[in-house]
Structure formats: structure tokens, C-alpha cells
Design brief:
Strand order of the largest sheet: 1-8-3-6-9
Shape: elongated
CATH superfamily of the largest domain: Regulatory protein AraC
Largest sheet: 5 strands, antiparallel
Number of helices: 9
Number of strands: 9
CATH topology of the largest domain: Jelly Rolls
Strand content: 15-25%
Helix content: 25-40%
Radius of gyration: 28 Å
Structural class: alpha+beta
Distance between the termini: 40 Å
Length: 291
């Protein structure tokens, strides 16, 4: 759904300490994120005024006509940044006060988050976790100001955390529904990787962030089996591979595939495949093409 990969790029970042102040109107090529640490100011976006009290943030998105007015002494950590990758990002720049005509600069213009389906970040917002958001923003500014390769990587890492926080709070992307067939695509790989371990439905449900009953319902719709039956199927399929392609004993294969013992493997194997493990091994070795 994104027009290009999310790869944050900080262009400018600092702690603005000001007496009462005012800026002229301008439009941006990138994003401007501001946190109000002290004081209060008004942001006017497309003709509408928005008060920004201490402890809250504002996000000005690309091409929004805006002006800022500080009503008192203020401390406002801020960052100008790209969110989406643009190979020409180094050619972009922070626009000046009164710069409102961006004609001829569209190749440098960042896509707007709020133009994408399911995303609606308000101009002024209070983060879901204010201390964590503030700390991440301050760390991002501090590491960017180091102007080292490691500092650049750290600042981009913190910026990604801020973007993730915004999307979790102000988009539908974090709310997976049973109508999305990709909701549990991770399950097969996870189960195969942990096949020899004890895997419970409760554990899988917790990892999916669903209740157990909701997880089971979504799982049946996606895989056509209950989680327990699907896991047994994966274990038998892996046992078939080992019986066909290795010399391991049935007891060893049972342990490797997560069965309690050889008897448990034999019972489940026969129920799902129609033959015992030994008979399957003999049959596939007599006829290598049989699967």
C-alpha cells in the first residue's frame, strides 16, 4: 500500500528555544514533527488554527500551507524528515519562511501519510505513550546531531520507532481482521521451525494478539483445519520426509517431529496417511517416486 519503502531520513533536528515568535507561511517538501516541551504555540494549517499545549505534538505533512506562532517562551524539539525512500533525498531541503510555491520540485516531494488508505494522523496529537514517544524523539535528535555514521543509523532507527508508533495509533494497519487472508501467514514457518517443541494454541493466539477463540476461528478460515490438526499434519509431513530421505530410527523421528514417542507417531501417522511409518519407509524405498 505504500508508494515506496518507509526509510526515515532526518534532514534537520534540534531543540528550538525561543521567546514569543512567529513564522511566515510556507509549504514543505518533507515532514515536520514538533514536540512542545515548554510553552504554548498555535499552528495554522490551511487557514485553520490549532493550539498545541505542552506535552503534545504536531505533525505537518508535505505541501500543507502552514505558519507557527509562539505565544510565550517555548522549548520545542523538532525534526524535518523524509519518511519514504527517495533516491534524490540528498537534493531535497527545508523550505524557507514564505516559500509557498513548490512548482518544479515535485520529484522531491514526500508522499503524504494521510493520502494513504486507512491512515489519518491529526495535525495536533498526544502520543499513546507520551514518555516513550518523547524519549525516542529526543534520542533521535541527539544521535542525528552527532553527525557520525553510527549516529545516522541510530537516528534512523529511532525515527522508524516514531513512525511505527504513529501508524499503530492513527491507522487501521494494526487492526488485523479475519477478512485478511494474510493474517496468519507466519504460523506455518513458526511451527516448522519449532516442530520438536511443545506448541500450544494459547501460545499461537498470544503471538497473533488474538483471543484463543478468535484465533481458532481465523485459523480455520485461513487453513481449513483446527490449529491442532494443522500442526499434526505438519509433523506427519516432516516425518514422511525423514522416513523417506534419512536412516534415523522411528523413535528419533518421533522426537524430532514433536511426538511424545514412537507409538504416538505411529498412531497419528497411520490415521493421517493410511499406513504405519515402517510401511511408508518400505514403500517409498521400493518405489522412490511415491510420496
Amino acid at each position: 500500500m505504500f508508494p515506496s519503502p518507509i526509510v526515515p531520513y532526518i534532514r534537520a533536528a534540534d531543540h528550538a528555544v525561543r521567546t514569543p515568535w512567529r513564522t511566515g507561511a510556507r509549504r514543505l517538501l518533507d515532514y515536520l514533527l514538533i514536540y512542545v516541551q515548554e510553552g504554548r504555540f498555535t499552528i495554522t494549517v490551511e487557514g485553520a488554527d490549532h493550539e498545541v499545549p505542552p506535552g503534545q505534538c504536531c505533525l505537518i505533512q508535505p505541501n500543507e500551507l502552514h505558519a507557527l506562532c509562539g505565544h510565550s517562551n517555548t522549548i520545542t524539539p523538532f525534526a524535518h524528515l523524509d519518511l519514504f525512500y527517495n533516491p534524490r533525498r540528498a537534493a531535497s531541503f527545508v523550505t524557507r519562511s514564505l516559500q509557498t510555491d513548490l512548482n518544479g520540485l515535485h520529484e522531491l516531494m514526500q508522499p503524504r501519510l494521510n493520502d494513504l488508505p486507512g491512515i489519518a494522523v491529526p495535525i495536533v496529537f498526544q502520543p499513546a505513550d507520551v514518555p516513550a514517544f518523547r524519549e525516542t524523539l529526543l534520542r533521535m535528535i541527539g544521535t542525528w546531531q552527532q553527525q557520525t555514521i553510527l549516529g545516522q543509523l541510530q537516528s534512523q532507527h529511532h525515527a522508524m520507532g516514531l513512525v511505527l508508533s504513529l501508524l499503530q495509533q492513527f491507522s487501521t494497519l494494526a487492526h488485523v481482521t479475519p477478512d485478511q487472508p494474510q493474517a496468519l501467514n507466519w504460523v506455518t514457518a513458526y511451527c516448522l521451525f519449532h516442530l520438536s517443541d511443545t506448541i500450544s494454541v494459547a501460545e499461537l493466539a498470544e503471538r497473533s494478539r488474538f483471543s484463543r477463540s478468535h484465533f481458532t476461528s481465523v485459523f480455520r478460515k485461513q487453513f481449513g483445519l483446527s490449529p491442532h490438526q494443522y500442526l499434526l499434519t505438519l509433523r506427519v509431513q516432516r516425518a514422511q520426509e525423514l522416513l523417506r530421505d534419512s536412516e534415523h530410527s522411528i523413535a528419533h523421528i518421533a522426537e524430532h517431529c514433536g511426538f511424545a514417542d514412537a507409538h504416538h507417531l505411529s498412531k497419528t501417522f497411520k490415521r493421517l496417511s493410511g499406513m504405519t511409518p515402517g510401511a511408508y519407509r518400505d514403500a517409498t524405498r521400493r518405489n522412490p517416486g511415491q510420496r
